[in-house]
Design brief:
Layout (H helix, E strand, L loop, with lengths): L1 E3 L16 H5 L3 E4 L1 H4 L14 E4 L7 H13 L3 E7 L6 H15 L3 E5 L13 H5 L9 E6 L14 H17 L2 E8 L3 H13 L6 E6 L2 E2 H10 L7 H7 L8 E2 L2 H13 L5 E7 L4 H10 L6 E3 L5
Parallel strand pairs: 2-3, 2-11, 3-4, 4-5, 5-6, 6-7, 7-8, 8-11
Antiparallel strand pairs: 1-12, 9-10
Keywords: Oxidoreductase
Organism: Tropicimonas omnivorans
InterPro entries: FAD-linked_oxidoreductase-like (IPR029041)
């Protein structure tokens, strides 16, 4: 097996205000689950060296499997950030055990803290704030928190964002007090307008954290709609619904190309645009998602197999 470095594409110097999709894709992160990661023979053949890989915490998956996945990815040269869901932790002791395992067995000190996908908490933590108040995260190097550009009815039942914005401010203050690097990793959406509006609202509310915006990677339209509904994607779901009316497109993959181009233009036009990087959800598969990223401007070191050995 020979190793071939994939250099970043040569780009002409951008004029002020000129949009670059490639620059927005640069440094993307991606999300995996233990069961999907187990099917990938060689992550280095798919991802740039040093890519941040989030490990989704699926309720019911043994912590041993998640830590093993984290350990493998760290050993292969990736920056790993496991999900830590507040409402899934059954007790203070269980939360402490998760963190100790990740740190002790995989050397991880960065986590995505989020509420979790269960309605009734399994233990004492009903929110991320309550989980942070345990002090167990005070020594973390980096924490990411969840953001919802189109709102989250689990947080603000009336469809607004007052509670969500206050929670973001509290977490921002927590990180500043403890010297922890923090960013917002978001749910995915399908059109730029609500994302741009949310970015402006963040800054107006005094929230200066960088945003790593969730983008759904290429997938069949039926698959995309299924995940969008399950994840509570907001009004931008209409983008998919309009496309679904054309039966000839139902089996064709839906790609985020137009959305990313629109976001690149928005960032070029607004120096205070909150979106710093993209976080890719590989709904149609890791290989399809990374291939799309490469095609649209991202190049990095990968392996090219010419034989075994």
């Amino acid at each position: 097996m020979s190793l071939l470095p994939f250099a970043k594409p040569r780009r002409s110097a951008l004029r002020p205000g000129e949009a670059s999709t490639a620059d927005l894709l640069d440094g993307f992160s991606i999300e995996v689950m233990p069961r999907t990661a187990a099917k990938v023979e060689d992550f280095a053949a798919l991802l740039p060296a040093g890519t941040r890989v989030y490990i989704a915490h699926i309720d019911g998956t043994p912590i041993e499997d998640m830590v093993a996945t984290a350990r493998r990815l760290v050993s292969e040269g990736f920056e790993v950030m496991p999900h830590i869901p507040a409402r899934v932790a059954g007790s203070h002791a269980e939360l402490a055990d998760w963190l100790a395992r990740y740190q002790g067995e995989a050397g991880i000190d960065s986590f995505l803290v989020l509420g979790g996908g269960v309605t009734t908490p399994h233990g004492p933590f009903g929110s991320v704030t309550e989980m942070l108040e345990t002090g167990l995260f005070d020594g973390a190097r980096r924490l990411h928190i969840a953001g919802h550009p189109e709102g989250n009815k689990d947080i603000d039942g009336n469809g607004g964002d007052l509670i969500a914005m206050e929670a973001l401010r509290q977490k921002q203050a927590f990180a500043a007090e403890r010297g922890i690097d923090m960013a917002i990793a978001t749910q995915f959406a399908f059109e730029a307008a609500p994302i741009v509006a949310w970015s402006r609202r963040l800054r107006a509310e005094g929230i200066t954290l960088p945003v790593h915006l969730g983008i759904a990677g290429p997938a069949k339209l039926q698959t995309m709609i299924k995940f969008a509904v399950a994840c509570g994607v907001g009004p931008s779901l209409r983008v998919l619904q309009r496309r679904a009316k054309d039966v000839t497109k139902l089996v064709m993959p839906f790609e985020p190309t137009t959305l990313v181009a629109d976001l690149a233009r928005a960032r070029a036009a607004d120096p205070d645009f909150a979106v710093e990087r993209l976080h890719l959800f590989p709904l149609g598969g890791i290989d399809k998602t990374t291939s799309w990223a490469a095609e649209h401007g991202h190049r990095a070191e990968r392996r090219h197999a010419t034989g075994r050995g």
